[in-house]
Each structure stands twice: as C-alpha cells, then as structure tokens.
Amino acid sequence: MQPILDAFDARAILPEDGCAGALAGRVWRPELNGPSVVAVRDGASGAPELVDVTRAFPTVRDLCEAADPAGALRAATGETLGPLDAVLANTPPDTRDPSRPWLLAPIDLQAVKAAGVTFAVSMLERVIEERARGNPDAAAAIRLEVGRLVGDDLRRLKPGSPEAMALKAVLVAQGAWSQYLEVGIGPDAEIFTKAQPLSAVGCGQEAGLHPGSQWNNPEPEIALVVASDQRIVGASLGNDVNLRDFEGRSALLLGKAKDNAASCALGPFVRLFDDRFSLDDVRRTVVSLEVMGADGFRLSGTSPLSEISRDPADLVEAMMGGTHQYPDGAVLFLGTMFAPVEDRGAPGQGFTHQVGDRVVIRSPGLGALVNRMRHCQDCEPWTFGAAALMRNLAGRGLLGA
User: Fold this and answer.
1) Rounded to an integer, what distance in angstroms lies between the CA atom of residue 194 and that of residue 15?
2) What is the residue extent of each domain of the chain?
3) CA end-to-end span of the chain, whole Å?
4) pLDDT, tens digit, for every residue of 142-166?
5) Which residues form the Fumarylacetoacetase-like C-terminal domain (predicted)?
6) Are 329 and 64 contacting, i.e. CB atoms less than 8 angstroms apart?
C-alpha cells in the first residue's frame, strides 16, 4: 500500500505563509498517555516546531473560549516538543514508533457538525443520488434529466428568496421537487451531526470508508471553529467522507452515510483568526483536492468558497443560537461543490474510492490535509473519549480553576 505522506514534510502541510498565523493543533504524547495542545512556531533553526501549551489551555476548546484565541496562543509558553517534521513523520500508523509523539486532529471537545447542500453543483448531485436510489449505473441518464429540468447555474439564487420560492413552485408542478432542493434553495439550511467529539482523525492518519459502500467520494471542505458564544474563531480543512449509495437509497440513512469510524478528517491545524487571516479570507478561499490511487488513477478538482449559496456566518447562525447551545463550542463543515463524476472504471460508473487512495485537501491559508483511505474496521480504533481525556488531564494536574 502506498505511503500516506510520501514526499510531504512540515512545510508542505503548512499554510503558504508558514508559521506566521496562529496555528493550534494536538499531539499524542505516549509518555503522558494522552494528548497535548500545541502551537506551531518557527524554531531557532528556522524549522517549524511544536510547543506544548497544555498548561495554559488543557483543551483546544479552552483555547477557543478565550477572548482573543490567536493572541492567547501566541502569548502561551510551554515545553518545546521538537521539530514538526519529526512528529509528522511519526504520524502514519503503519510506520509509527509508539514511543514518540504523533499528530492528532486539531479539535477535541467541540461538537462536529456539517452543513449539507450548500453549493449548486453538489445540490444537483444529491438530487441525482436520490433519483438513482444509490445506483451509480443510473446516475448519468438522471444527471441529464435533472440538468434539463433544473439547470445547472443556481449560484446566484439566494436560498429562501422570492425567486427561489417561485422556482420551487415550478418544480413542484413538474414533479421534480426534491428534499435536497428544499435545503439547497429553501429557507432552512441542512445542518447535521458529522461525528462525535474526539473521534476525528488528523493529517497523516487513515480515513475510513464503510466496507458496504460501492459508491462514495471525498468532500473537501473548510470547517469553521466556533466558540460557545457563537464567535467564529478559526478554521481548518476537512474531509466529510460521503457514501453516495447509502444516502441515495434514503436520506434517513444520512447517519450511516456520514458518521462512521475514522470518516471525519480534520487538520492539519486550526488557524485562529487575527489580522492576517479572517472569515473574509475563508470566503475567498479556493479548496483544492487531489486523489492518488495505488492503481495509478488521479483525480483533481477545486471548490471556490465564493460560490457557496449561503454565507458561512449564516450557516453558523443556523447551527447555533437560542434553540441550539454548544457549551464546548462546535466545528462546522461548510460543504463542498466538488462532486466527482469522472469514470474510474467502466463507462457510466463514475468515481468511487478504492482502498489505498491518498487524498490531499489544500488551501493557501490553511495548508494541506493528507489522509489515506481504508475500510473503517481497518483504521486505528477510536478508544480515547471524553471520560478518558478528563481522567488523563486530571492525572496530569491540568484541571485546576
């Protein structure tokens, strides 16, 4: 099986401006039998290094609750763990030295949520999945039919607007309405639970595919990090791995299509907002994707956030407010317009993952998230939950007032 990181090094996964941003992450420290919160900084030699700031912030959740998370991270002091290169190189599970630190997903106690059907292109693909009942053989013909009825340029249509409601009335009259069009152009956004706190995998780890799925794809996205008071404090890259056949058979299978072992990837770090990087930079970001298969297959594409149908701040408001509180904050995947339809095998079969695919999701301001796909049961099992984290931090004397 091809290596996860291949030629990637620390500079290759960092943002284009290196360590200039306020970058927070998490590292597993075997000698402590638990995780530490780290800051990514330029070392004395000029190479990126990791500084353990857990004494100041026992969890990333605590860091995000600060009045100025980016400033607080920059001011925090702690033990230097050494070069990021070494920790990154030790992260892939098949080559790891378990006595040395490795990278984790950069979030911990936050709820992990996702917004669905936020781009016109992916909205139409969800409609196609629904009509195909999860059968990729039927997708090509249905794609033509849906394009004829709906069109493919819905980017300028504001969800919930009078124009959107007029289009809805026309489609209902033609028998072409869909639950995906409802959340795509209707007044209410789709917000669902992607994964449980502490279950996400990080850069350099393996991401999970349900073994029963025959039609699936990566979903390269930006994930916003939101404090408990609804402040959007940072962002990371994410892969909202999607099982198109499961969800296509029934929207009630969304949980099975989305929330599986190792099926939520986030990283490499959380970039906290400051005067160098803000929500406006997220709005302008283009997320790129590259899939490299062990069979020689290559797939690439981009997802410009400028084409999102609902503003990121509006999606956060739909997730959190008077009717939904998250005392430990939340992470919100913003959705993707990337819906690969290129044939990987037989004509008309479209794209689906194969075990061993290496997936690289990248943006200039957030760096690169690199994972290798495996069946869920073959990925590292998730055994360290919230109770284990609290016991570990208490044992380390980190849960004081």
Assistant:
1) 25
2) 8-114+189-394, 118-183
3) 48
4) 667 656 655 555 556 677 777 777 7
5) 230-373
6) yes
Topology given in CATH for the domain delimited by 8-114+189-394? Fumarylacetoacetate hydrolase; domain 2 (3.90.850)
pLDDT, tens digit (0-9, with 9 covering 90-100), for 74-111: 999 999 999 999 999 999 999 999 999 999 999 999 99
Task: Quote the tokens at residue 137.
Answer: 């053989």
DSSP conformational letter for 118 = -
- The type of residue at 223 is A
Residue 31 corresponds to which tokens in the numbers above?
A: 């000698």
Distances (CA, A) of 240 to 192, 245, 287: 12, 15, 13
* Residue 199, phi then psi, degrees to nearest 5: -95, -10
Give the separation between CA 167 and CA 157, rounded to whole angstroms. Answer: 10
